[in-house]
UniProtKB/TrEMBL annotation:
The chain crosses the membrane at residues 81-97, 117-138, 217-237, 249-267, 276-294, 306-325, 346-370, 382-402, 409-430, 436-453. Residues 36-58 have a biased composition (Polar residues). GO terms for cellular component: membrane. The lineage of its organism: Eukaryota, Fungi, Fungi incertae sedis, Mucoromycota, Mortierellomycotina. It holds the Pfam family EamA. Residues 17-35 have a biased composition (Low complexity). This is EamA domain-containing protein. InterPro entries: EamA_dom, EmrE-like, Solute_c_fam_35_mem_F3/F4. Residues 197-290, 311-453 form the EamA domain. It comes from the Eukaryota. Keywords: Membrane, Transmembrane, Transmembrane helix. It comes from Linnemannia exigua.
Length: 459
């Protein structure tokens, strides 16, 4: 599967609102989620390679942090949740359209080249990079009015990304310290975060050595996230011709179960009864849809050889597990508290650049192995692939924002609404019947999502 739109978020103000409460919380704890529990830790010499920059604090008196009250924090959380819900709706809509178009290209058009389609789709993400740059430096109300030349705008944008990367870099150092030390005071760790997160990112000055370290860290972070995301995405494209779209969508949406499991293991999220119930209802709905659609099969698969491929279902389940893992890894290592929306869209664009410049290697390799013989698409097929890429860009950009603003479990369970929507779309466009299993399963999934929404509102 594949992560845009005009962002009206004021990144500087949003980052200040989001980081104030986080500075007073234990290190590693994410606002709005229960990602890490408080612990006592020992005092050690933990001076990071890239030091917290104090020059910006002294040179920008307007950046002095202001303590927010409980009402202000609640209002900010509610506003962020509403924005995430709207973005989630766009995410779901783009997913359904992308799913049906991918099915059409690989079956009706007969262009079954999953990795090539994936390569074009993910390379297309590179458009997010200049799009975010134009919005941040030309359109955004938070852009400084003093920017006049292109060089100044590039420098301003680069400083925003460095500030976000610096936040991620120092949090990674804190994660390592937490795992090796037991009694450093939480107030000391919180003050470390405050020094990078509480001040205007546009005024931070980095040395040449710091720029080099952060650039290398950003490259390896982008390369790792791109590679990690390519594997389950390829499995999804490959399974389109191996099983039904209803089964594929249902099985891949079990990623919420794996996201919750990995959130407990990697983010130290607490086991909450309502979240467990939400995931259980969602998985129950997945099982009902999958089993009833299997029973109602007409004996014909997309390849005409068999009704449903067990291998396709197994590969889909593996891909779902990897998706859940990728969501949690992104939340932990690639979701900064400083300008999160700007960084999410920039990361999406950088992942497209990495895909285009480096991940073309499997194409000739698969051709040589006979796994996927390379054939250039016709103009109609290529235009359809570009549409798939555009929808994938919208989907993944929105999904990354939802994960960064809420939690991996909320995003994964929210996307589960695509299961009944895909079944409904198949009925409307392809005259495929919608059985009682699709209806009951869809209602169970929506009930689980409603419980999760209520749980997130409470917290």
């Amino acid at each position: 599967m594949s992560r845009s739109g005009t962002r009206k978020t004021r990144d500087s103000a949003a980052s200040l609102n989001q980081t104030q409460p986080a500075a007073a919380a234990p290190a590693g704890q994410t606002t709005g989620t229960n990602n890490c529990s408080s612990q006592s830790r020992s005092q050690r010499d933990t001076t990071p390679l890239v030091p917290q920059n104090s020059t910006a604090r002294n040179s920008h008196p307007e950046a002095i942090p202001i303590e927010d009250g409980p009402d202000d924090r609640h209002h900010a959380d509610a506003k962020r949740f509403r924005m995430a819900s709207i973005i989630l709706f766009v995410c779901i809509l783009s997913f359904v359209m992308q799913t049906e178009l991918t099915k059409f290209v690989q079956t009706s058009m007969g262009y079954h080249k999953p990795y090539f389609i994936l390569y074009i789709s993910h390379s297309f993400w590179a458009i997010a990079l200049p799009a975010q740059f134009i919005y941040t430096t030309y359109i955004s109300p938070s852009a400084p009015t003093s920017l006049s030349s292109l060089h100044e705008r590039i420098d301003y944008f680069a400083r925003l990304i460095r500030q976000s990367t610096s936040d991620l870099y120092h949090r990674k150092a804190e994660y390592i310290m937490v795992n090796t030390s037991e009694s450093t005071s939480s107030s000391t760790l919180a003050s470390n975060f405050q020094s990078t997160a509480s001040f205007s990112s546009a005024t931070t000055v980095f040395t040449s050595r710091e720029k080099s370290v952060l650039s290398k860290y950003l490259f390896w972070l982008t390369f790792g996230m791109t590679t990690l995301f390519m594997v389950p995405s390829y499995l999804w494209y490959a399974c389109v011709a191996m099983t039904s779209m209803a089964n594929l969508t249902a099985i891949y949406n079990t990623a919420c179960f794996f996201a919750y499991l990995f959130s407990i293991l990697l983010l130290r999220e607490k086991i909450v009864a309502n979240k467990v119930l939400a995931v259980f209802l969602s998985l129950l709905g997945v099982a009902v849809i999958s089993l009833t659609s299997r029973d109602a099969g007409d004996g014909k698969s997309v390849t005409g050889k068999q009704s449903f491929s067990m291998a396709g279902d197994v590969l889909a389940l593996i891909g779902a597990a990897l998706y859940g893992f990728e969501e949690v890894v992104y939340k932990k290592y690639a979701s900064p508290k400083v300008t999160p929306v700007t960084f999410a869209n920039t990361m999406t664009g950088l992942m497209g650049v990495v895909t285009f410049t480096m991940l073309w290697v499997p194409i000739p390799l698969f051709h040589w192995m006979g796994h996927e013989i390379m054939e250039l698409p016709t103009l109609k097929e290529f235009l359809s692939i570009l549409m798939i890429a555009t929808l994938g860009l919208i989907y993944n950009g929105c999904f990354m924002i939802v994960v960064s603003q809420t939690s991996p479990v909320f995003a994964a369970v929210g996307v589960m609404a695509t299961i009944p929507l895909v079944a409904l779309t198949d009925w409307v466009l392809f005259n495929e019947s919608v059985g009682w299993g699709n209806i009951l399963g869809g209602l169970s999934i929506l009930a689980g999502f409603a419980i999760l929404v209520r749980e997130n509102r409470k917290r």
